[in-house]
Prior knowledge:
- The protein is α/β, with parallel strands linked by helices.
- Helix content is 43%, strand content 11%.
- The protein has helices at residues 2-37, 65-79, 98-102, 139-155, 169-176, 179-188, 190-214, 246-252, 254-264, 279-282, 305-309, 337-353, 399-419; strands spanning 47-48, 51-52, 106-108, 116-119, 220-221, 227-228, 234-237, 267-270, 288-294, 314-318, 358-361, 369-370, 381-382, 388-389.
- The strands form five sheets. It has a six-stranded parallel beta sheet.
- Strand 9, helix 11 and strand 10 (314-318) form a beta-alpha-beta unit.
- The longest helix has 36 residues, at 2-37.
Amino acid sequence: MVELKREISYLMNLYENYFNINETRINNSLERTTKALHHEKVDRIPIWQVSQTVLYPRHEIFFSMEKNLIMQLANIILTLQHNTDYVPYLDPFEGVTILAEAFGCSVKVPNNGDPVVKSPAIKSFNEIYHLKKPSKNNDVYKKVFSTLNYFQEKTKLQIPVGVTDPQGPLDVASLVINNNSFLTGCITNKKEIHHLLDIITEAFIEFYKMQYDLLKNPAFPVHSFPLVNSNDGISLSDDEAILLSPDLFEEFGLPYLNRISDAFGGLYYHCCGNFGHILDKILKIKGLRAINAHLSPKEFKPEYINKVISKGVGLFLGISDREIGWDDKDIWPADKIKEIYDDYYIANAINESKGKGIVLVGYGGYTGYLDRVASSSNNLFVNASGHFIEKGPLLDVPIKEKNKNFDHILKLIEFNLKSFK
């Protein structure tokens, strides 16, 4: 424990040095990103390029606030060493199960993985009426509050801290009662499902307002989004939505998202997968500020971009997973990752948006470059998502090359903007 505290102190000293060196760039990036997502004029499209390493097995960060903080500080420092529009913040991730656990779900943490629900809190529709909103002082909430306070204390409020991963009512409901029952109930037991979503929405608003009350230097909106300098909404993940028809989403998703948006002054919306079939309904969310989506032929398709932008909604556009987004080596061979990123991702992003209202991730997507500085093996590396990596063009990339890649992406954007005018 003493050694971990020394590491935090050491990393904070490094952070202060790199922040001071990059302060002007960081402030410019924050303004640029905020304006871009708000559809205001910017000097150029922001590029969110990051670097990461892995200091501990993934599961250990859920049992140690110290290791959680050390991992994040190390990744911030690595990222601040190269060109990027990334702005530092702390994301005290406690897992997507956190609110479901507060409702009584049994949760386990697998090796090199994130928390998962072992058994739901309720097993029948009748039990929904016996479900109670978590008390304000339950042990799950206390753990989150302890993490937030610890992050603030050890960083002395120098780095904005966000709330823990906000999973929307649909996601939480699919964990509180098993997913098959939840989806079936949307058709066969509508009254019970609405009752469940109502309780979850009430708990969501209460839990996240309590977190914001604790934070003295809060980060907005954070999870699944870059940092912005405006407190105009909470970010929220809504992955369960892709399993609903447009009519079911309008009935069981939209009303509760609107309540959350009203409570927090707006909504930044994330959904994995291909949600094109409900995109028109998503765009009806009151106070919708921006959408985070993964651009690919299998997920958020290029033709969706203009539909979002035309509504004045910002778009944080990324490539999902490690590197370009798929594990299919026939489609995305490792030695062609950059070329496919350039020819597919950048070309489509610019063609459809004309450079307006978007923020893009750089090479490597949300995980970014992977530095093997802490790996015990030269041949095998487990990244922050639990993926095993043996080699790749984004592994152990020198800073000089990262900067060259960043400049290349900017030039490619400019080229495509001219081409599509």
